[in-house]
Amino acid sequence: MDTSATQSVIKPQHRSHSERSVWAKLMKSKLTYLMILPGLIYFLIFKYLPMWGLIIAFQDYQPFLGIRGSQWVGLEHFERLFREPTFWMLFRNTIMLFVLNLLFFFPVPIMLALMLNEVRVKYFQRTVQTLIYIPHFMSWAIVVSLTYVMFTTQGGLINEWLASLGFAKISFLTEEAWFRPLYVMQVIWREAGWGTIIYLAAIAAVDTQLYEAARMDGAGRFRQLWHVTLPAIRSTIIVLLILKVGDILELGFDHIFLMLNGANREVSEIFDTYVYTAGLRQGQFSYSAAVGFFKAVVGLIMIVFANKLAKKYGEEGIY
Fold this sequence. Notes:
The protein has about 325 residues and is an all-alpha fold. Helix content is about 75%, strand content about 0%. The longest helix has 29 residues, at about 175-205. It is globular and about 70 Å long. The two termini are about 50 Å apart.
């Protein structure tokens, strides 16, 4: 009886000591947690709480009945999505644009960061960085408007220049063959400079002694870049690549919507614009939620697969 009584007294004291220890650690780093708090609140309100609304993907949702009162239909909307004749067109267009982004856009920030790192005149380096960052702060409406001004057949700069050289004008904005090149060029122009920030930060963290050792071994600038800089930022590249793969069906609505028209719809219509048409314009809330749910599941599967593949080849991955 004495032993059990002693244990009953000791255990509450142990728990309270543990609680005090956790609280002490929190208070010690309170400014750090306070800085993180706005981001946590943002993700909680705008990312996690809205996930409750995914229930309507399995219902025949009626706004006046609400989520609790709407009829449950199970996987009916998902079956409809896969039976739609436009599904494979949407899937093909989305995957094609993602692959083009991965092949042509993803390496550009890496190359820009490596080139900027080799610039020894700091004033010139900062000037170039500022110039390539500016497009990121322009909305897609401005970017597409600039594209229209340059490529339209009605007085566009490019077409007027072609005409002055004796060539026929080209309908860049309506021909299907030109939609994807224009899309990739716009993404590179707007986002490549901004994408260098993370890579430049990773390069700045590389131990300078590695460069000194490489120079002592006779390595020039290019060999230092290839054998020191690139291996040092490889983990950063892998993490960003995994995150990029997770966005395989998330290309962004506003950019594509502004470029989409009746003439190029066969190559420009993607899941994001389809959700807008079905959900907001036609009021098919449950069906559009099912399409969004499908996109999220595919993205999750791709992240898990890419992360496992990275770990298989000795990289850290994202978890």
